[in-house]
Amino acid sequence: MLLALHNAEEAFGMGQALPLLLGQVPDVLRAILPDITFSSFLVALVVVTVAPVLILASMGHRQPSGWPAYALLAVQATILLNVLSHLMAAVKTGGYVPGLFTALLINFPFSMLLLGRAWRDRWYSGKAMVALVPLAFLLHGPLLLAILSLASQLIPRF
């Protein structure tokens, strides 16, 4: 799965990069961020990697349709948004950030192909396709923060 490859790139490089990246977060956002450690980051990374696999598994051998397929499109829209976050982080830090290569070389083109095909072939209504944009922001924002927060609370208990 392409997401797993991207998340592996992030996992291998984030140990050293996390303090630098957290240092670049504006003070306004820092107040709402949970205490993100490398361990909590890895736990969150596993969750966001496994979740789409579980959705895909719920479909079995059926044709993609209904809520599971739409949920996977929402994940792909979120991955596309994540590409933008990698670009912004690279600009802000002035160089490579973990996940940048796979974001640009794999996630961006695949997202454009898949979402473009879904739009062109009308897999869902225009309203449903447009709704992927705010869904991506919800998944990449509040839901990701909730996962990171939960992970940071659970890690000391391991």
TrEMBL record:
Q: Which UniProt keywords apply?
A: Membrane, Transmembrane, Transmembrane helix
Q: Coiled-coil segments, which residues? A: none
Please give the start and end residues of each transmembrane region. Answer: 36-57, 69-89, 95-116, 128-155
Among the Pfam families in the record, one is HXXEE
Tell me the domain of life. Answer: Bacteria
According to UniProt, the name of this protein is HXXEE domain-containing protein
